[in-house]
Amino acid sequence: GAGIELSGDEVVWAVGDPGSVAQIVRILLDNALVHGASDAPIHARAEMHEGMARVVVEDRGPGVPPGDRDRIFDRFERGAEASEGGFGLGLAIGRELARRMDGDLTLDGEPPGARFVLSLAGAPSP
Q1: 4-121 architecture in CATH?
Q2: Burial environment of residue 109 by CB neighbours within 10 A (0 to 12, 13 to 18, 19 or more)
Q3: Using one digit for the tens of pLDDT, what is the confidence trace for 67-92?
Q4: pTM score above 0.85
Q5: How far apart (Å, rounded) are the C-alpha atoms in residues 35 and 63?
Q6: Domain positions in the chain
Q7: Element (H or E) spanning 26, and its range?
Q8: Rounded distance, CA 98 to CA 109, Å?
């Protein structure tokens, strides 16, 4: 199966609930493990970008077709290419949690592959 490669050489601080952030990252990694290519690693990194703390999770699977890009964040919706089990709740819950913290969960880039980005307000280091 695919492994997970972590990268990032800076400490990133964000405004948000640590438990919610961990749940969103789990959702993104689980999603990438299910839908990503089985022979290519998943890439995950934390970074600062324009004052926002971001967690980026990328896979090398087939990606999300243009017609599914918005609706995959709706509850009980699954992409047209989805072949594995699941109820279509993970990304909806992830986006809801992110927005409760005044952040967002988005899908960037174009197929092949998928790149999901959790963005939260950056915070100064404690």
Answers
A1: 2-Layer Sandwich (3.30)
A2: middle
A3: 888 888 988 655 545 555 555 789 99
A4: yes
A5: 8
A6: 4-121
A7: helix 18-35
A8: 20
